[in-house]
Amino acid sequence: MSHPTRHRVLPGFRLSLGFSWFYLGLIVLIPLSSLFLRTFSLSWEEFWGTVTTPRALAAYRLSFGASLAAALANVVFGLLVAWVLVRYRFPGRDVLESLVDLPFALPTAVAGLTLTTLFSAKGWYGQYLEALGLKVAYTSVGVAIALTFIGLPFVVRTVQPVLEDIDVDVEEAAATLGSSPWQTFRRVLFPALFPALLSGFTLAFARALGEYGSVVFISGNMPLRTEIVPLLIITRLEQYDYAGATAIAIVMLGASFSLLLAVNLLHRWSQRRLEARPGA
Amino acid sequence: MHPSTLVLRRSARSLSGPAFVRWGLIGAAVLLLGVFLIVPLVAVFTFAFQKGWEAYVSALTHPTALAAMRLTLLAAAIAVPFNLVFGLAASWLIARFQFRGRSLLMTLIDLPFSVSPVIAGLIFVLLFGRQGWLGPWLLDHDVRVIFAVPGIVLATVFVTFPFVAREVLPVMEAQGSDEEEAALTLGASGWRTFLVVTLPKVKWGVLYGVILCNARAMGEFGAVSVVSGHVRGVTTTLPLHAEILYNEYDLAGAFAVASLLTLLALVTLVVKKFVEWRSQPS
């Protein structure tokens, strides 16, 4: 796999090594370390007091709850969309296939403005939902909807290549052996898709936790009720409470890092399990 | 193409069973994407033009809108080239050499993606803000970074950091280095080899990385919002300008600005499609 002696024939090792680490340090590592250094200036009691105020706890609850709901919705939606795009041909398929990435390409503020206007009491969607007694704009439901929009492409794009690789013969064999479509899905397809669903879920969840632009318009930003963690950080900052902003940022950063780490481990575990299966 | 369609037909029959299941699933997916993607797209342009073409043009040619456009272009014009050079250097390094810290470097490149945009803004406030580490020094020398243009540029560079490296690295790894070694053996210099042999091989990956990097640079909201201070016409980028207009209940104006950013997103998707089409193995 690696041929260090052969590859050292190529020039530019020292230059690219030096530049890559220098630029990474300057743009990413030094600025990020300022976050940790600032936290160390707080005593443990101060830190704990800052990150466990009722307002902060309410913000964690909303951010985690809405992100979890959005990521779960994305698993269902993503699987459906990936399945339809891979397995069926129908008019307009190519357009939809390209549009799936829209939430990645569209600036988050535009998404926020548009969803808020659509779901507000007089909006295109809001007027009908309001008639049904469902308020979306300026509630936690609105937060979850904005986060679902943002995370939509993740599961589609992780599941799609796996689904394309699955040999339809396997499904046909299962069907020939008398399994129902549901059994085929549960016993044959789902185990193969599980790692991809899981990483799509986590990517969507992690992205939703930190998301700001699309949420801040639709949430209404009422402390204790519809205030997400990133907004609380900004509020603290605007009050020149740098230490408070930093402490909450550390909690959030820790949460998203452990989430991504957990997924990496789970991913490896499920990969090993899949490889260990006889015949797989 | 043809054999695969045949297989698809077969599979549709075998697994999804009756046609009503197939069309039910297609209908559900189309409805979902329609509600979440297509209607919002239509809505942006409908709201932008609700007061007519003249109001649309005047919203976009207002001095503060033009200033926001200039700042957005400036931030992207700095962030994209810097991250392009880094992306090329880092992918060359990781794809071509084995060295200590290689996998650490790969992990760290993706770091800005797992940091909330708000935290990306916060770290620069902690460094350069009035109470920041370098704040007193900057104040003495009358240099403003936070609530000024340099802070916006820095935050933009940070959030768009991984894009080019991420797209170019897999392409470069897949290509191998036989041609480069041949060029070098024939006496070409290192730079010449890179420019004439390597760059053309990875050009579609580079283009894709650049277009994604640019879209994010021009559309970034959270990080820029933290460091901007929202000084109208001075430190407002296009997304921030749209926010200000929206908060002032100028819906048509806000969506006029948003429609520009939406066009940018659509162009990005078209280029992505084009790159995928061009780089497909024939």
Features:
heterodimer; A: 280 residues; MetI-like fold; 14 helices; 79% helix; globular; disordered N terminus; B: 282 residues; mainly alpha; 2 domains; 15 helices
Description:
The complex is a heterodimer of chains A (280) and B (282). Chain A has 280 residues and is mainly α. With 282 residues, chain B is mostly helical. In chain B, α10 packs antiparallel against α11. At the A-B interface, α2, α4, α5, α6 and α7 of A face α1, α2, α4, α5 and α6 of B.
Poorly predicted ranges of chain B: 1-14
Considering residues with a beta carbon less than 8 A from a beta carbon on another chain, report the largest interface and each chain's count: A-B, 92 and 100 residues
Q: Using the coordinates shown, work out and report the CATH topology of the largest domain in chain B.
A: MetI-like fold
Please report the total strand number of chain B as a whole number: 0
CATH superfamily of the largest domain in chain B: MetI-like
Shape of chain B: globular
Total beta strand runs of chain A? 0
- Helical proportion of chain B? over 70%
Short description:
The complex is a heterodimer of chains A (280) and B (282). Chain A has 280 residues and is mainly alpha-helical.
Annotate the secondary structure layout.
The complex is a heterodimer of chains A (about 280) and B (about 280).
Chain A: H1 4-7, H2 13-40, H3 44-51, H4 54-87, H5 93-99, H6 102-105, H7 108-119, H8 126-131, H9 140-165, H10 168-176, H11 181-210, H12 213-219, H13 229-238, H14 242-276
Helix pairs in contact in A: 2-14, 4-9, 4-11, 7-9, 7-12, 9-11, 9-12, 10-11, 11-14, 13-14
Chain B: H1 2-16, H2 19-48, H3 52-61, H4 63-96, H5 102-109, H6 117-128, H7 135-140, H8 149-159, H9 163-175, H10 178-185, H11 190-201, H12 203-219, H13 222-228, H14 238-247, H15 251-278
Helix pairs in contact in B: 2-15, 3-15, 4-8, 4-9, 4-12, 6-8, 6-13, 8-13, 9-12, 10-11, 12-15, 14-15
